[in-house]
């Protein structure tokens, strides 16, 4: 005797509820944001601890940087207490973190101005120089690396490899001095030091701090040409080192892709070399190249000290060098903190661009 079966009823499980699915996605996104914020906070705290420790371990007396070497003991002890150096280290660090969070990086004993205002004045110069160099590096190094990979073992490949080798071998200060001797002293094609000629100093109210952009916005083309004449030599010099690095890495990434099976299949279908390279292979190295460009920009912001010194460029590198020379620890700590914060910002921006360029990272 068989049992009669009625119609089967399907009840939706909680996991199938669209509302629950939206809640789960929202909570997952909130967790990612909270994790990222926590990571940023811990990184900033570590950076603050690093700069504070560096300021205390370097063989420089912050009291003498304020008072000068010829100071009596009573004045020395008073300034020592005013700077808070008589308190325990953990209290000094807590006070330092609190001051930084309020935007107080101290006063420069060298300039007499707040370090934050000094950094706001010198950083745009370094940023402009670094961006000029990176644009040069990408515009030349990327196509050079691709062409070298496509023509592996040929003349252009050997030229690209020589350029990369020279860029990593020749001291940048020597190359800068030679460039000044040839293009300024002998050929008079460019101006020597600074960002502008003395004639133009104080004639333009800065908006962004980037002279090329500010002069273009003001439509002052004479000043624009003068700014170009000053930045072109140090910018191209730094750009050459960017070309060397970017071209070498681009060549390596492209060679790896050109040996993949999908490229062989694309060529078998009759696609031209340009189509294979730009439509297929290049898409798969974009994220890697983005990492290289981000690292290059960060490295130029941090490593333009010698170029700024040779060319008298009034940027962060020269400001930091002067602070080290004068034992001005507020300057040193502020410059290091800004450099670290810029590296973090560049990493965050590049990470966001990863997600845009590569859907697999969503």
UniProtKB/TrEMBL annotation:
Keywords: Cell membrane, Membrane, Transmembrane, Transmembrane helix, Transport. Its main location: membrane. InterPro entries: BPD_transp_1_N, MetI-like, MetI-like_sf. It is a multi-pass membrane protein. Residues 123-350 form the ABC transmembrane type-1 domain. Gene3D superfamilies: MetI-like. It is found in: Cell membrane. Coiled coil: none annotated. CDD domains: TM_PBP2. The chain crosses the membrane at residues 33-54, 129-150, 162-185, 227-246, 289-311, 331-350. It comes from the Bacteria. Belongs to the binding-protein-dependent transport system permease family. This is ABC transporter permease.
